[in-house]
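Proteins fold reproducibly. Take a sample protein:
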Amino acid sequence: IHSIGYAPASFYVYKQKYDENGKMLEGQFEDLNDDGLINSSDKYRFQKPAPDYTIGFTSSLSIYDLELTFAGRSNIGNYVYNNVQTSSGSFDDLYHTTNYLGNITQSALLLAASSESNLTFSDHFVQNASFLKIDHITLSYNFNLNKGRFLKLYATAQNPLVYTKYVGLDPEIGNGIENNFYPRARTFVAGINVNF
């Protein structure tokens, strides 16, 4: 939601209630306006998808004929609404009256989501998505042959490392709301360059 005096695209959610053990109380939210009712008037603006800081870095290190290059980036202070978990945390998806088990994500169980219906607009699902990503690493070795000829062996990894506490697929989501999407691939390439 966009409101004057608040960060753009702030999440507009209910404040989740928890028991003394930190488990979310199913369907229970704080009555923020103290009118005895839980309705849209009790929603509040909580966090934002835009990071406070964006950092990028690149480096190239070489020792004799061995070279290492890498590049990465980091967002600090961005949040994501994990919309996938709002339905994955529903135990209706696990236990069915037809006596078969359904699918439920392990992370939903670890987060103590125990709703009998889909949970939506809870601040419980607004998660810190700060991250550090290494976009690529290349290690190469140059063999200098005679008369200007050379041979270069290299290995490259793209998207080899993502460090984050976010439990979804990818903490880098443009609009700040994770729905089902295909994650960025991790690829490895090895090659030879020859110059005669």
About this structure: DSSP finds two helices and twelve strands in the chain. The CA atoms of residues 50 and 145 lie 51 Å apart. The two ends are 61 Å apart (CA to CA). The first strand starts at residue 11 and ends at 13.
